[in-house]
Specification:
globular, 7 strands
Length: 165
Amino acid sequence: MILRKAGILAMGLLTAISAFFSNCKPAKEITSFEVVTLREVGTAAWTDEWEFVRTETGVTFTYYSGPWEFQEDVTREEFVEKRVEGGEEFLKEVLKLFNDCRISAWDGFRKSNPNVLDGTMFSFKGVIHDGEEISASGSNSYPGKYRDFKEAIRNLVTSGTIKGE
């Protein structure tokens, strides 16, 4: 009886692990991008958006925070909290962040956790490699390395650098 229950438990665990890894896409190395945007909307009708835009000389990072999507006659530009502009070295740091967090593997992620009532929804969009688009979205469910990516961009907001130096 105990062995049978252990076997059933083991089969269930193997099925769950198999399902998890079958949903994981391999990450492509990102060597160039045009724009990458992460947006979170909470239950308080508040939006946080972090955007990386490739420029001729490097990258512009902008953090927007506020209710622009829920108010008339306002734009997100009115809610800029932080803007960081950097050259080639900053570009290298941003590309390393994208690759370390495997954001290209997020493409097609669409999951929701119905057990959370008052949570956060996210959407992610990127244009990489001469027009290739990646997108992901979720409600209280996130792709792998999502929290690492958020921690790095929070460091960027608070310190002006990805590494937090």
